[in-house]
Design a protein that fits this description.
This protein has 766 residues and is α/β, with parallel strands linked by helices. It has 24 helices and 26 strands. A seven-stranded mixed beta sheet has the order 3-2-1-4-5-10-11, sandwiched between helices. Strands 7-8-6-9 form a four-stranded parallel beta sheet, with helices on both faces. Helix 7 packs across helix 8 and helix 15 runs parallel beside helix 22. The chain is globular, with a radius of gyration of 27 Å. One of its GO terms (cellular component) is cytoplasm. Keywords: Acetylation, Allosteric enzyme, ATP-binding, Cytoplasm, Glycolysis, Glycoprotein, Hydroxylation, Kinase, Magnesium, Metal-binding, Nucleotide-binding, Phosphoprotein, Transferase. Its main location: cytoplasm.
Amino acid sequence: MTHEEHHAAKTLGIGKAIAVLTSGGDAQGMNAAVRAVVRVGIFTGARVFFVHEGYQGLVDGGDHIREATWESVSMMLQLGGTVIGSARCKDFREREGRLRAAHNLVKLGITNLCVIGGDGSLTGADTFRSEWSDLLSDLQKAGKITAEEATKSNYLNIVGLVGSIDNDFCGTDMTIGTDSALHRIIEIVDAITTTAQSHQRTFVLEVMGRHCGYLALVTSLSCGADWVFIPECPPDDDWEDHLCRRLSETRTRGSRLNIIIVAEGAIDRNGKPITSESIKDLVVKRLGYDTRVTVLGHVQRGGTPSAFDRILGSRMGVEAVMALLEATPDTPACVVSLSGNQAVRLPLMECVQVTKDVTKAMAERKFDEAMKLRGRSFMNNWEVYKLLAHIRPPVSKSGSHTVAVMNVGAPAAGMNAAVRSTVRIGLIQGNRVLVVHDGFEGLAKGQIEEAGWSYVGGWTGQGVPLLFLPLSLPPFPLRSLPSSPQAYTGGLELMEGRKQYDELCIPFVVIPATVSNNVPGSDFSVGADTALNTICMTCDRIKQSAAGTKRRVFIIETMGGYCGYLATMAGLAAGADAAYIFEEPFTIRDLQVNVEHLVQKMKTTVKRGLVLRNEKCNENYSTDFIFNLYSEEGKGIFDSRKNVLGHMQQGGSPTPFDRNFATKMGAKAMNWMSGKIKESYRNGRIFANTPDSGCVLGMRKRALVFQPVTELKEQTDFEHRIPKEQWWLKLRPILKILAKYEIDLDTSEHAHLEHISRKRSGEAPA
């Protein structure tokens, strides 16, 4: 990329003005998006304006539209809701209201509008854009604007960011706020589970989702619910009998509680609502169980945004500014979104149309079509839920094979969810499933026991791995599922061992599970999201403490081995001034620049600093060294403090993402295993000797893929235990720009406009 192109990003916005507004229902993470739009807009040389109170502020103008500064978005990142306010606006639905809005924008020279909201808000923005030239000619005729003003503002660019906790917008994998809403729901489910077990109760939980069952569906997967009711897929006509049979079977197997999740828009096949109260009445009448209803309501919209939503909001904000400033009068209005871990731009009205098609299909009772329109990711969630919740394991194990499951390496939250789904899918397929305690060592010593259905009951929410984890790695392996970089190395040793021992010629698969997110062949690993949220929460508290004392800089050490994923992503999510990592070598001059940057920052209204350091980023520039350097150089200007977060990053209850990701990985791995067993079964025994019979199951961009461990050797730096190429390194410039460094933003990484139909066929099953 040439220097000229680099320079272009910094001058792209000169002479332009951007307005940002949040509209419709609020969602956690909207503030992160607003902050990114403001800071990246200012970085490109543009003027950026807040529109307070959504479209109402656009119509009313005056003080509602105010210019933003760099400092005005400080400390916004960790706040829930929307700081600039949101309102439902009747005025904007009328042409008269839109005329007033256009007048306000023209007078301020604003021709770029970034709208953060749901499908209704985004449709309103598109209408506004299509009428723009007519509105201007009306204003000119009425003498409200001059011909010169009309020429200067001759077209309006619109970019949408979807902020909606329901995740009901088609074409986007995740909308801003969905992950945080799941955090709120799962916190409550975990709390309810403990009281339900004490009293042997059944709980019916109602979650938000009038036309979309995403929250209900992912919650049921994440907590191992007995049943879920969603609007897209109503239950069969005899569902009452089926539900009661299912609940009593769970109790017979030894469970002390039942959990039923209901989306607020749940309906039966005839379109009649299924309410949480009616389900409670049914259970009490038929089974006599002590049953309680909890309606979660607006709790789901509240609280602090999760790490994922902050990063999503920040990345989308950057992408929105680029899309606005690169737009021409012929570019269709677009939404910026994430697909897998890739930023994408999609035509706004195509997405709105498909979203409306889902509602229409449900109204016409074409439920299969509604499910398809929701996308492959939604369908995958549904299939895994049905497998785990509705299919009975066969009674006899005749002709079955034996499959073993074990954990390897350091603990990671979510491992138990993977073991649970692996064991249960294995049993459903008629296999005998063994669990190995203490990893490879336990296998060598015979610490193995058979697992039944209820053996893994209630495991999804458990943080500590319930199959103990040794950190040694003797070359003794098995037929199924380890996890972590040590498991990957163990997998390679297994392949080597096949040359000597026929017994090792069995299929095996590695599910990446490590807080460091450093397993080759996968963009994400189970446990990393939980660790990231733990770091974020701690940084929030530290920032609050710094805000109270003024002129204080905190240096925080994160885990990750040589992998800088946690430090970089936590830096983005917590608004750090710098994140030191091994993959991006730094010198004493870089440290000097960072200190100087903080000295300048102390002269502004934001008198605090946050610096993250990955534990192995540099053997000589240790946390103590950096702390001492900052303390010396900052004398009289700022105080320094240090925190080493340590093993708290491996603990805690797994996040909804880790539970759901692990559950699906376990199910997919066991399905793969069954296929491989059939392939390699001959003459009464299993013999698997091909490279593709030993794989890592990883998430790559938009899909879950199996990759032979031997093929991944080329992509691995074994000395430092990291993959040679890591996707998240491309996000580091965003971290620096949001911390006000004058650097080059590599625009070559930005997304191009895609079409929703094409995107749907390649969507990630996540």
